[in-house]
Amino acid sequence: MIVALDLDGVFRDFLGTLIKQFKIDYPHLAFQIPQSEREITTWSLEEFWPKGWTDEMLSDYFSRKRVRQIYANAAPYLGAIQGYQNIRRYCTKNGHKLIIITSARKPLVQLANWNWLSKNNFLKSIDNVYMRKDKYNVPADILLDDAVHNLKEWQLMPAVSFPGKRVSVCFNRAWNQDYSGIRVWNYDQFLLLLRGVEQKVKAI
After folding, report:
1. What is the distance, to the nearest Å, from the Cα of residue 111 to the centroid of all Cα atoms in its chain?
2. Average pLDDT over residues 146-170
3. For a FRET experiment, which of 12, 99, 143, 148 has its CA 20 to 30 Å from that of 176?
């Protein structure tokens, strides 16, 4: 099997880092923005930022003005590095490929992503890294992601390593509560799901 992992919202704490950096740069707005990512319940950030801060302005802020602080230097989620290492060991032991797919398209963000992956020891053990918006066009079988649109698009395509459609797995976050498909709350649950899928594939 080919197992695909998203970065932001799954392993890298993008929103927590964004909130922290924004409060440093704009202390007078510190209490007009969410104090944690749990307060962000939709995909549009401008709904939670002060008037005038559109999604376009916020994108320019985190993908250009503060790209190093918010992408390259972002903290991993608690347990994320150990969680990744456990998934990597399982895939290696069972002959599965492990890849990263992140939606980054802007060159500065892509460079910051490479820095983050290297700093957190992902590059030493990952089989491939894709930075593209159309995640569904990457050949793989299982996707762990936090974005509902990615999960829905993913499962419309056929799997590569077994008959039938691919498997979408939602990493539980406040902004994806409207997703009705498979959901996990931590990395250990994702490992259990991988084992379950593998057993089903072997039984075919």
Report:
1. 17
2. 96
3. 99
- DSSP characters over 75-111: PBPTTHHHHHHHHHHHHHHHT-EEEEEE---SHHHHH
In which residue are the tokens 């930075």 written? 131
Q: How far apart are CA 74 and CA 55, in angstroms?
A: 20
pLDDT attached to residue 151: 98
Instruction: Specify the residue for token string 């931590």.
Output: 186
What pLDDT shows up at residue 27?
98
- Alpha-carbon distance of 73 to 28, in angstroms, equals 24
CA separation for the pair 40, 48 (Å, rounded): 7
Tell me which residue of 19, 34, 124 sits closest to 74, measured CA to CA. 19
How far is Cα of residue 77 from the mean position of the Cα atoms in its chain? 11
Q: Give Cβ neighbours of residue 54 (< 8 Å, ≥ 6 apart).
A: 46
DSSP H/E element including 2: strand 2-5
Q: What is the pLDDT of residues 75-94, one digit of tens each?
A: 999 999 999 999 999 999 99
pLDDT recorded at residue 200: 87
User: Any idea what the Cα angle at residue 68 is, between residues 66 and 72, rounded to 5°?
Assistant: 135
The 3-state DSSP composition of the chain as helix, strand, coil percent (nearest 5) reads 50, 15, 35
Contact between 86 and 191 under an 8 Å Cβ cutoff? The reply is: yes
